[in-house]
């Protein structure tokens, strides 16, 4: 991670060397969400700052959401590398100059999925007027498609070069990968079956009545979560719920993963604990988590810092032989894109809508195991991160392919990408 790929940034680096620009003002950003939502947002905000010739202050990270992680940018990312790697492209500073320190910035939320023209026509005049602008929400504020190629490549440059984790996080992540590699290949299962996901999505398939009540209470306890009444089964049949550990077990077996496959579980605390993982562990006993790879002393500084723990999972996920997310949230998408960038490493994009249909048919004994397994394999033959272009749906940015899941503008032919990667130490 965090390495410049020789030859791939030719036009961007020419722009990098074009000299410092005259700043139109200062950009403060308050990122919202978990690690990967914030990561993508930082890439977008750097790109906006460059386009508007703004000086950007080191981003503020979310401390108010469900996770309540007090980590600052410097606790997760290498600040000096971030600043230095973008020097000459975007001026980034650690704090506002003294003369602006007491100025109340204009605070606003940019419109989601906006083009560069929106920022030029609507935001730049405000920047010139107020000089200091704060974006209080940063998730998905830049369009997936239709941006100038240089801006798309800058988004990639920030994501795959400028955003490097701190040395301590990188060191532990590399150690975990080395331990996993010492016994051969391994897969990462991003099992997003955590309490916050289930509560806010309303996905309760397989939960007891008591668990469903607990999850509902949690959803109602957070006033900022607008969707309260949710039809869980309808969402599941539409493919909008993460697979349960039990459903995931069936899918792994159907795809042909052998019993001794080494599986790293990338997630926080699984809702229901060891009881809910029992079936998965019975069928695939060679399961490991970060707590099994690192000592208590090594993990202690990261405890109660869910974003830093997620950074460790991110490093292992990018490096794995196969990455399988049980949902299509921000981590699943951003990791998939990073794995494409590092040589189209295999990511199995589960078709949850069709999978739950097949699972229900199998559990109702309407499909034999052989029929079920064959159908699952056929379903995913074209869903393993093969080189492709993003699906564009005009007017429906939420429904089209996410830029960071497949930044095809930055990838190039698979063969050339792999040839370039021979000279890269990940």
From TrEMBL:
Residues 1-25 form the signal peptide. GO terms for molecular function: glycosyltransferase activity. CDD domains: O-FucT_plant. One of its GO terms (biological process) is fucose metabolic process. Transmembrane segments: none annotated. It is found in: Membrane. Pfam families: O-FucT. InterPro entries: FucosylTrfase_pln (IPR024709), GDP-Fuc_O-FucTrfase (IPR019378). Its main location: membrane. It is a single-pass type II membrane protein. It comes from the Eukaryota. Pathway: Glycan metabolism. GO terms for cellular component: cytoplasm; membrane. Keywords: Carbohydrate metabolism, Fucose metabolism, Glycoprotein, Glycosyltransferase, Membrane, Signal, Signal-anchor, Transferase, Transmembrane, Transmembrane helix. Belongs to the glycosyltransferase GT106 family. This is O-fucosyltransferase family protein. It comes from Setaria viridis.
């Amino acid at each position: 991670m965090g390495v410049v790929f020789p030859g791939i940034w030719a036009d961007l680096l020419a722009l990098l060397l074009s000299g410092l620009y005259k700043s139109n003002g200062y950009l403060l950003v308050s990122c919202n969400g978990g690690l990967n939502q914030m990561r993508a947002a930082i890439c977008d905000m750097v790109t906006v700052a460059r386009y508007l010739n703004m000086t950007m202050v080191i981003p503020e990270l979310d401390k108010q959401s469900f996770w309540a992680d007090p980590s600052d940018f410097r606790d997760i990312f290498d600040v000096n590398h971030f600043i230095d790697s973008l020097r000459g492209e975007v001026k980034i500073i650690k704090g506002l100059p003294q003369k602006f320190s007491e100025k109340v910035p204009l605070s606003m939320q940019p419109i989601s999925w906006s083009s560069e023209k929106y920022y030029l026509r609507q935001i730049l005049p405000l920047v010139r007027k107020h000089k200091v602008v704060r974006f209080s929400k940063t998730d998905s504020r830049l369009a997936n498609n239709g941006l100038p190629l240089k801006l798309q490549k800058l988004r990639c440059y920030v994501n795959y070069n400028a955003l490097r984790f701190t040395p301590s996080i990188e060191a532990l992540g590399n150690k975990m990968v080395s331990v996993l590699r010492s016994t051969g290949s391994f897969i990462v299962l991003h099992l997003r079956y955590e309490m916050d996901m289930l509560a806010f999505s309303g996905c309760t398939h397989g939960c007891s009545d008591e668990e469903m009540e607990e999850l509902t209470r949690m959803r109602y306890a957070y006033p900022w979560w607008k969707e309260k009444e949710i039809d869980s089964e309808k969402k599941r049949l539409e493919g909008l719920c993460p697979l349960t550990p039990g459903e995931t077990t069936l899918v792994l077996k159907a795809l042909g993963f052998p019993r001794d496959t080494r599986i790293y579980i990338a997630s926080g605390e699984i809702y229901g604990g060891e009881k809910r993982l029992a079936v998965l562990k019975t069928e695939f006993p060679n399961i490991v988590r970060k707590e099994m790879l690192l000592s208590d002393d090594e993990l202690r500084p990261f405890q109660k810092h869910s974003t830093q723990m997620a950074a460790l999972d991110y490093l292992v996920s990018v490096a794995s032989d196969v990455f399988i997310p049980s949902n299509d949230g921000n981590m699943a998408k951003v990791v998939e894109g990073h794995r494409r960038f590092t040589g189209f490493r295999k990511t199995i994009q589960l078709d949850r809508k069709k999978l739950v249909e097949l699972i229900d048919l199998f559990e109702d004994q309407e499909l034999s195991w052989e029929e079920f397994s064959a159908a699952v394999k056929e379903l995913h033959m074209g869903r393993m991160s093969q080189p492709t272009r993003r699906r564009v749906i005009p007017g429906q940015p939420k429904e089209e392919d996410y830029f960071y899941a497949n930044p095809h503008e930055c990838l190039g032919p698979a063969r050339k990408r792999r040839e370039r990667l021979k000279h890269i130490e990940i």
